[in-house]
Design goal:
- By secondary structure, this protein is of the alpha/beta class.
- It has one domain (3-247): 3-Layer(aba) Sandwich (Rossmann fold).
- It has nine helices and nine strands.
């Protein structure tokens, strides 16, 4: 168990005496691999009660999960109902991480591929946030972190659908902030750059080298580095941060 200054959930210090923090109810969508898995494990290691959503297979070792298809509103509602039963209370921290890619040049991209990516990455995040805020409004506290991408801030050839979906998360977070900021709920965006995952490991050597040369830090990030920023946004020190976009990209996008 950890001790810290006493905060209300919105982040204002109300009592500087030490207290024991209670584990928070955390739900990470798409938390069965990559960045989502690192985020979920980070919260779990910090002592929080964590659940992930996953579409197939089984939850990773050491984590509990609920099945959910974020492209289906009924599936999202059912997953939240199950999560609340397992956690014993409403979700207090939502990390909307589930995402897909269907890359292709603009002239050749089908309507179906464009809509499928937006349906998962943007509309899926909306569905999860819409369901999560029901409990957060009643509790007058909550944290929403949307996992975007540096691509959503400066674009990428062949990824009009992906970039559009990730850019849309910024508008979603800022609209939630305008609407619910007075109820102790924050909504922020984390925009990772190139992360050292199985996907980047499989890149051709020349392409990987070109990406590295464009990154001022000269390296890809570890998934845990993204997870650390997400946990900070969900913690007491970020109670007055809402509607923000925080790049974790080694300087690649320079905040844009």
């Amino acid at each position: 168990m950890r001790t810290s200054p006493r905060y209300d959930y919105g982040g204002a210090v109300t009592d500087t005496t030490q207290r024991t923090e209670q584990p928070r109810a955390v739900l990470v969508t798409g938390g069965n691999r990559g960045i989502g898995l690192a985020i979920a494990r980070g919260f779990a290691e910090a002592g929080d009660d964590v659940l992930i959503t996953y579409r197939s297979g089984e939850p990773p070792e050491g984590l509990r999960g609920v099945r959910a298809d974020v492209t289906d509103a009924a599936s999202v509602d059912a997953a939240f109902d199950e999560a609340e039963q397992l956690l014993g209370r409403p979700v207090e921290v939502l990390v909307a991480n589930a995402g897909v890619t269907k890359d292709g040049l603009l002239m050749r991209m089908s309507d179906e591929d464009f809509e499928a990516v937006l349906g998962t990455n943007l509309t899926g995040a909306f569905r999860c946030a819409r369901r999560a805020v029901k409990g957060m409004i009643r509790a007058r506290r909550g944290r929403i972190v949307l996992v975007s991408s540096v691509v959503g801030l400066y674009g990428s050839p062949g990824q009009a659908n992906y970039a559009s979906s990730k850019a849309g998360l910024v508008g979603l977070a800022r609209s939630i902030t305008r609407e619910l900021g007075g109820r102790g709920i924050t909504a922020n965006v984390v925009a990772p750059g190139y992360i050292d995952t199985e996907m980047t490991a499989a890149l051709p050597k020349d392409r990987k080298q070109a990406y590295l040369q464009a990154i001022p830090a000269g390296r890809f990030a570890a998934p845990e580095e993204v997870a650390g920023v997400v946990r900070w946004l969900a913690g007491p020190d970020a109670g007055y941060v809402s509607g923000a976009v925080i790049p974790v990209d080694g300087g690649l996008g320079m905040g844009h």
